[in-house]
Design brief:
Rossmann fold, 8 helices, six-stranded parallel beta sheet, alpha/beta
């Protein structure tokens, strides 16, 4: 990555981490994907039961492969016959992996969900939630974060799943009520009441959508 962009990301990440800490959440900065993987594995004890939502960023840093190969009980809902049971197992997991559709520079995260299993597990259930977040997802404020979630993340995910929504056809949010909409539940995570539960790894890379 360009040296100037990297320096900017380092400084911005410090600001985001300060915001996270003021909200009783832990933040970390990784200079690249390899460092992000090391930080994540350091947060996940061997033998832990681990599951996830649809976090492409966790795949991109190699975390999912590492968990499958390592000494972990990794529940892969995509490989389970009973997907509902796999999703429900997340609420009693030791660690839930996620990303954020957007995060503000003072540490507030925005996530949109269709099935709502991801946002509900972020809000409550798993003992620990580990977020992998590319610096491309940092926004100035809540309004910017909501716009990014609705006009960047949602259209790309709708296209990825081949859904019949206006945003999949145009790339922009229409605030639709389509049966295929993935904008069913909006979660704004502004504070964690439980110390040590939420951990956010900010990665000096463009990850996810």
């Amino acid at each position: 990555m360009n040296e100037n962009i990297t320096k900017r990301n380092e400084l911005l990440a410090l600001q985001v981490i300060k915001g996270l800490e003021s909200r009783n959440m832990s933040g970390y900065y990784a200079s690249d994907k390899d460092e992000a993987l090391k930080i994540a594995l350091n947060l996940i004890e061997e033998g832990s039961t681990v599951t996830m939502g649809g976090a492409m960023s966790a795949h991109e840093i190699g975390l999912v492969d590492a968990l499958k190969k390592g000494n972990y009980n990794f529940i892969d809902r995509d490989q389970e016959t009973d997907k509902r049971a796999a999703m429900l197992a997340a609420y009693d997991a030791d660690v839930f992996l996620s990303s954020a559709n957007a995060i503000t520079n003072d540490g507030v995260m925005v996530n949109i969900d269709g099935n709502s299993n991801r946002v509900s597990a972020i809000a409550q259930g798993p003992k620990k939630v580990v977020f992998i977040v590319g610096m491309n997802k940092v926004c100035d404020d809540i309004d910017g974060a909501m716009k990014r979630a609705r006009n960047v993340a949602a259209p790309i995910n709708a296209q990825r799943f081949n859904l019949d929504t206006p945003c999949a056809k145009t790339g922009a949010c229409f605030n639709c009520k389509s049966p295929d909409t993935i904008c069913c539940q909006f979660l704004i995570t502004r504070y964690s009441r439980h110390e040590g539960r939420i951990h956010v790894i900010l990665v000096n890379d463009n990850l996810g959508f």
